[in-house]
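anyone else get weird line breaks when pasting these?? whatever heres mine. first is seq + tokens for prot A
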Amino acid sequence: MNQAEAKVIVIGGGIIGCSIAYYLAKTGTETVVIEKGNRVGSEASWAAAGILACRASTRNPYAELCRYSLALYPTLAKELQTVTGINIEFIQSGVLCIFLTEDEKKNWEGLAQRRLKHGYSAEILSSEQVQTLEPSISKKVIGGVHFPEDAQVRNPRLVKALACAAAKLGTKFLTGHSVKQFLFDGNQVVGVETSEDRILGDQFVIAAGPWSHQVANFLGVALPIKPAKGQMIIAETVEPIINRPIHGLETYIVPRTDGKLWVGPTVEDVGFDDRTTLSGIHQILESAIQLVPALAEKTLLKTRAGLRPKGKGKPYLGRLTEYCNVIVASGHYKNGILLAPITGKLIAELITKDNTSLSLDPFG
């Protein structure tokens, strides 16, 4: 069995692991990323709509974490394009949330009014204003709320760009490698054994998405993270039918610059079953066509499913109490894409400075 060494070993090559690797690479920290799949970002990081939304009306720690992360995106997009030539298509287009019932209207307009009261942006729209903004939306829609600061990103490109940039700066990626156990010197973690290698390190990051609890089990630590399946479809239009992401009936319709539409996702508690199913795709299509009837005639290109790490309602970020050189960065659930930059930044700070620019105490 081969043996290697690195300062930091990141377990998991999804959006979170790749972001941590990139921010560590910028500091010159020798890092190895271990990914069980044949390529990085092949799970939930791919099967996502790429929406970047922070709609809370409060300043609680989780809402602030989301806001800080969204604010990092413009600079990150420019950095990644400079280093890798990859355009991640960060577009601050806003998101239009529409409603078809009075209950939905009450909830969305209530949120908008609370945001406005606390100094955040939101625009309450009548059904006529919604139709003017997006003429393809169903005439059954009774109104909407536009969140102008929301954005979108091409998430598969984002993962690829983060990994490419980290690799250019010296990070080593081991794909097709599964962690089998941790290695110890007394009570200190000193390495991992994979299906192929032994790798020794100083610090370790568990960023394995819904598999994080399995990795933590090797340490005898119970990490309450479970998988939540989300199915997506990708459709194609010759001419654009919407100009910005639409949200309604628990479904997003996200237009890309190349004419593709990303639609979904479902939210399913089915364990590690990552199949796309007829019922899941039917649910997505039924909701999406209710919102934008013209979708019914568009071309269906692909379906996809991914497993998101669902925890306690906010991510786990920080060192394990039991092992001070093991850090967890998981449980981001629906906000993995949104929170990738701030997670990478803060975990890199924790490793290199033993201090962070935002407190991780609320996320332990």
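and prot B, same format (seq, then tokens)
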Amino acid sequence: MDQNIIDQAQSVRSGENINTPGFLSFINEKLYNHKGEIEILQFPGGYSNLTYLIKKGEAEFVLRKPPRGANIKSAHDMGREFKVLNLLKPIYNKIPEPLFIYDNEDLLGAPFYVMERVKGLILRNQIPKGLKLNSESFRQLSINTIENLAQLHNLNIETTGLKALGKPEGYIIRQVEGWVKRYFNAETDQIPAMNETADWMKNNIPDEVAPALIHNDYKYDNLVLDPESLEIKALLDWEMATVGDPLMDLGTSLGYWAEPDDHPALKAFGLTHIEGNLTRQEVVELYGKKSGRNIDKFVFYYVFGSFKIAVIAQQIYARFKKGLTKDPRFANLIFVTRACADNAANAIKYNRINNFK
């Protein structure tokens, strides 16, 4: 395996160090059966939880914790993520091995957990240097990605204990109302398409379908791939996993799934716009075939996914505009909000999920 294209950790960012004496003592004790000095690095990317590489001699582990000041009872619940991994362990082999969790806040200011490191390729917004991918590579990757999502959604939530992770009844309306509320709480600019989309969703709630385990952040940069075959080795970042309508999960994924004609602000976040990838419509058709679910009324789910991603970008942008964060990456997120709003509005206008021009 070419180490140059494997996902690499870097020096820890300023203000996010975890190498306190108390933590180092704790982690040395937990990893007592591995020889060597502790080295701590940080994985790049992401806008949510912080991810660190813990090295002790030849052994490598990954630590996940919320960012400073985060609400650890909502989207940054490490205990929940650790529980999800343990429930999946006997039935789904594309996850890292969860090792241990620390529930208190005294060591790092928040709970954290440690898991095995799964080495492989993670495709973010640029193809790593030294890796050659052609159109056939991307076609196979997009097929692998959607087939794996269908497999995930077909796990038995009744016999595995997974159903306890959420309340599937009324899931769609709760999600719509919740994300609409979050948007207006974070609104900084007048974007008519967001207001119109919010009203349309409330008036077009589809019937509920059989619930499934849903990941809620399923996209290329949460997949660890074999760099040769592009087979999926592990699915990461389970912090928002729950039980609900699986088409809502696919809708969110397709909100991120930029195509060549989409706004540059959307294409900057991933690689789905590169030639060879399935189109959004092809994704939906493949998912329907592999999952056996009815996808005839998918426009609603794509509209929701686009709106949701617009809100996520808007929330981060609002914090930046208020001076609560100085990360320069966040200054342009308002363009992501606008681009997602436009896609949602066009999907409603044309009653389709792509080819808006």
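btw re prot B: The chain has a mean pLDDT of 94. The chain has two domains: 3-116, 135-350.
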